[in-house]
Amino acid sequence: MAGTDHGQDSGWDGPTPAFILVRPQMGENIGAAARAMLNFGCDRMRLVAPRDGWPNSAAVATASGAARVLDHVQVSDTVEEATGDLNYVFATTARDRDLTKPVMTPERAMQHARELTAAGQKVGIMFGPERAGLENSDIVRANALVSVPVNPAFASLNLAQCVLLTAYEWRRSGDDTAPEVMEMAKTRFAEAIELQKLLEGLEARLDAVGFFFPEHKRDSMVENLRNMVSRMNLTEADVRTLHGVFRALAEKRKGFK
Amino acid sequence: MAGTDHGQDSGWDGPTPAFILVRPQMGENIGAAARAMLNFGCDRMRLVAPRDGWPNSAAVATASGAARVLDHVQVSDTVEEATGDLNYVFATTARDRDLTKPVMTPERAMQHARELTAAGQKVGIMFGPERAGLENSDIVRANALVSVPVNPAFASLNLAQCVLLTAYEWRRSGDDTAPEVMEMAKTRFAEAIELQKLLEGLEARLDAVGFFFPEHKRDSMVENLRNMVSRMNLTEADVRTLHGVFRALAEKRKGFK
Predict the structure, then answer these.
(1) Neighboring chain B residues of A233 at a CB cutoff of 8 Å
(2) Coil/strand/helix, residue A75
(3) How far is CA B200 from the centre of its chain?
(4) Given an 8 Å threshold on Cβ–Cβ distance, is A103 in contact with B211?
(5) Cβ-count burial of B119 within 10 angstroms (0-12 exposed, 13-18 middle, 19+ buried)?
(6) A203-207, B14-18, B77-81: which has the minimum mean pLDDT?
(7) Is B206 in contact with A141 (CB distance < 8 Å)?
(8) In angstroms, what separates the C-alpha of A241 from chain B's closest C-alpha?
(9) Most B CBs within 10 Å: which of A115, A199, A249, as the mutation test of the B interface?
């Protein structure tokens, strides 16, 4: 995790998801998001490449009583870094995306987050920059999408409002007494960094055999693979198996050279 | 209804509740409330004694695309006037009140509002002024209270946020049609026979490179692969991609024989 000099919380002790603001622009919105989170007991914020750097005095001024959320913020340069230790990542999106990925309401998503968290998984929720929203290259790293069912004729939720509704649903999801015990409760699910390494390894092997052809389709082919793998909810054991499968298929080839 | 010279909607044609802002102070907050409402299809706003009079240019500027909510606002001098034609009135409140009155979550309140509206009743929701909130003399006019379950250690919802959560719950309460998981609507998921063929193809390729070693572990290794693949919830497109990946990794090898 980059920016470890900003007083981040290195561990993951509590049961709340990480709210990951990706390339946020205005410090005021970061502060307002911190307040929105804390209203519903969420205090784990991560920032990816905040436009105006970090720390940000406008964020602190706006956060006011929620400054302790900012005190423990984790700052990264990339989404890859910010999600590396997470087992399950949601991406909030306003528009329909032409991606094969489950789309959930905030309610369903936070119920699922609650189940995953109860099973020991680390969950994060990504929020895109003001106006533009998340890019497809961010979204393909997510396990599922979250879409707020806004009025199609007037959809103007700002960043802090989207954070507010998500945190509210997180809180609501915990109103039930007993959390559902998930199947596979003892399984360790892969962290995003492990998926990333799996993909990089596969990509290199596929490059070596000229899989990405024609060249101008390379990016979309890689994105497609990334999208598929991030949706599979792989366990750590799955990742090891797939490393083995790819290696076996590819490296024997070398043996025959 | 007072203030009928401000272009109000005199009738009650639609199915949405009235959002009644009582003694709001900042025009910006009125505009932000209008936006929050319209995000979830609510467009009936009433104002009681807005501090800076009406119309309010700051409200209009902030409302922006939601200006039509303000165009039809009804302005009154008192809560009594503003609620006179309503059958059922909710009062939003942050603090516990020492009043014998049902207290509902926003979810339950808006479900109830939906039921009442469906039965032809006219429903309103009162929101107090910034900071101070509603006075007891306002609240005693309400049929029920609505309280957002905020973090007791940090409760800082502003007016527009409270309006947002209420409008969101109103929208959710009518959301019978939309499934909670919009499970990749146009996607065709793979059939078992397709997974079976994928596995058989992979197994043959892995056999060819001596992956299943030692022999006595062969069955459990195959079972492990099958278990993994069946858990991935692959789409038909994923299956084709994986066929391509396995072929690329393995067949180039043959080319080098």
Answers:
(1) 231-232
(2) strand
(3) 45
(4) no
(5) exposed
(6) B14-18
(7) no
(8) 8
(9) A249
Residue B119 pLDDT level (bands cut at 50, 70, 90): confident
Other beta carbons less than 10 A from residue B58's beta carbon: 14
Between A37-46, B33-42, B182-191, the lowest mean confidence (pLDDT) is in B182-191
Residue A53 region by backbone torsions, left for phi larger than 0, else alpha for psi between -120 and 50, else beta: left
Q: Give the chain A residue nearest B199 (alpha carbons).
A: A245
Q: How many whole angstroms separate alpha carbon B165 and alpha carbon B36?
A: 8
Considering only the beta carbons, identify the residue of A104, A244, A249 that sits closest to B250.
Answer: A249
Please calculate the CA angle B213-B217-B223 and round it to the nearest 5 degrees. Answer: 115
Q: Which of B189, B118, B99, B107 is nearest to B147 (CA)?
A: B107
CB-based contact B175 A149, cutoff 8 Å: yes
Burial of B226 (0-12, 13-18, 19+ CB in 10 A): middle
Q: Across residues B16-26, what is the average pLDDT?
A: 97
- The span from the CA of B248 to the CA of A91, in Å, is 31
B90, β-bridge pairs: B125, B144
Which three-class secondary structure state does DSSP give residue A18?
strand
Nearest to A156 among B35, B156, B202 (CB): B35
The sheet with strand B103-104 has its strands ordered as: B74-76, B45-48, B18-22, B123-127, B88-92, B144-146, B103-104
Contact: B241, A231; criterion CB under 8 Å: no
Binary contact (A249, B244; C-beta < 8 A): no
pLDDT (0 to 100) of residue B220: 86
Q: pLDDT digit string (tens) for B65-106?
A: 999 999 999 999 999 899 988 888 999 997 666 666 788 999
